[in-house]
Design goal:
By secondary structure, this protein is α/β, with parallel strands linked by helices. The chain contains 8 helices and 8 strands. It binds adenosine monophosphate.
Length: 220
Amino acid sequence: MTAFHAIFLGAPGAGKGTQAKKLAGVSGCLHVSTGDMLREHRSQGTELGCQAQGYMDEGKLVPDGLMVEMVVERIARPDAADAWILDGFPRTGEQALALDRAVDDSAGGITHAVFFDVPHGSLIDRLTGRRTCSQCGAIWHIKFKPTSRDEICDDCEGALVHRSDDNEAVVEQRLSAYRTQTEPVLDYYRDRGLFCEVNADQAPDAVFEDLGKVMLKEVG
Ligand code: AMP
């Protein structure tokens, strides 16, 4: 696959992070997860982390100005000169426009907008049962992808954590933000012929196989 600049779209819990990590592992591309970056800022107590905290805890989107600045700075670094995946960005029309300004055609433009399609009814279970390794970031699920030992990562033996925004009340708010603010962004990419779709309501390996097919195919 030649250098690609892919954005991964889909509701919280659709599996974007799992698939992005796997694709980055196989292809060597850079994986930029805005949620992970914000959590890192929070754990380091940076100004951005403090500004984002309240929004994240309530399941609301962090304001566009903060997000755009963080992402534009990240993809301008030398390690983003080749292929990358943006996981969790853009989530609003304003972010999509700002991304276009930052990644113009001379930089190869956006090559794929991949939508991970999951029925809304599955998302609450997926999110509330999700567990993340505090050490390596691997994503597990108590029902759909359990580890062999409770609360211990199979990959690195790190302790698993339950994200505080993966509880039911906050999940409802995150899904509502997705429906009102992010879903309209899908049409923006559909209209530009960059859109491709993966059935993400399958086992992770089957989703990954489909992802490979859509990313190898000319989009349009
Ligand atoms: P995620 O890990 O992608 O589910 O993101 C966790 C939280 O970080 C979201 O609920 C938002 O509060 C914030 N966040 C992540 N990405 C964005 C974005 N592109 N725009 C606004 N807020 C974001």
